[in-house]
Design goal:
This protein has 225 residues and is an all-alpha fold. 72% of the residues lie in helices and 0% in strands. The chain has helices at residues 15-28, 30-50, 57-79, 90-109, 113-121, 125-131, 137-147, 152-173, 184-213, 220-223.
């Protein structure tokens, strides 16, 4: 397998390099990723088919999605050798999800662009929190911002690929309601699977960005050897 080292000061990421590292990380955790997609999308499909109008079940699905996201990124950083035996608790992950979510919401309300910038620059935040035992919730966001300085455009390009997957997923999920002649069951099943895949893509992107941009500890040549 091709080996790639850490960034040197001033060196800019390449989109192909990001995607290559993402593929390697996926390969290391393929079983867990497939389980994540199968269980999460299966749960969402079951809820949608049983209760098309949502109701109280929507909250349960949202909670399950957060828990599944925590378990997924914990496995990703562990299998990639980034956590070095350290495991962060769910509380910190939830706190970061809440804080970053509020920041992104405010950013997107402010003419969209600030939210997009934050979303791109904060990509490594969850990997930082889950990999470094001295990282706080706010500290992970601050370090992610510092780490991605000068790396906005390649990260944006990679994020836009994920956004395209998400857009296709949402279009598929709503195809029945939009009158595209797709059966309700097909729309729900395919849409939820694609939504889970889009979530995996963005999670893995954050881990890959962290692995490539961190400046201490082992490099990717050791992780992917």
């Amino acid at each position: 397998m091709e080996r790639r080292g850490m960034r040197v000061n001033g060196e800019t990421l390449e989109v192909g390099e990001l995607l290559h590292s993402m593929a390697q990380i996926l390969k290391l955790s393929l079983g867990s990723v497939l389980l994540y997609v199968g269980v999460l999308s299966g749960a969402m499909i079951a809820v949608d088919l049983a209760s098309p109008d949502g109701g109280g079940s929507t909250m349960l699905v949202n909670i399950a999605s957060v828990v599944a996201g925590y378990l997924l990124i914990r496995v990703l950083v562990r299998d990639a050798g980034l956590a070095a035996g350290f495991e962060r608790g769910f509380g910190a992950y939830f706190g970061l999800s809440l804080l970053s979510g509020l920041g992104l919401l405010l950013g997107f309300v402010c003419l969209v662009i600030p939210g997009l910038i934050l979303f791109v620059r904060w990509q490594p935040a969850f990997a930082i929190l889950m990999s470094e035992d001295d990282a706080s919730v706010s500290g992970a966001l601050e370090k992610a911002w510092q780490m991605t300085s000068g790396q906005f455009w390649p990260l944006l390009a990679a994020v836009l690929i994920g956004a395209a997957i998400m857009a296709v997923a949402l279009l598929t999920y709503t195809a029945f309601d939009l009158g595209y002649g797709v059966q309700f069951e097909v729309s729900v099943i395919a849409g939820n699977i694609l939504l889970s895949c889009a979530s995996v893509y963005l999670t893995v992107l954050g881990v890959a960005a962290y692995a490539l941009l961190r400046t201490e500890g082992q490099g990717l040549e050791e992780i992917f050897a």
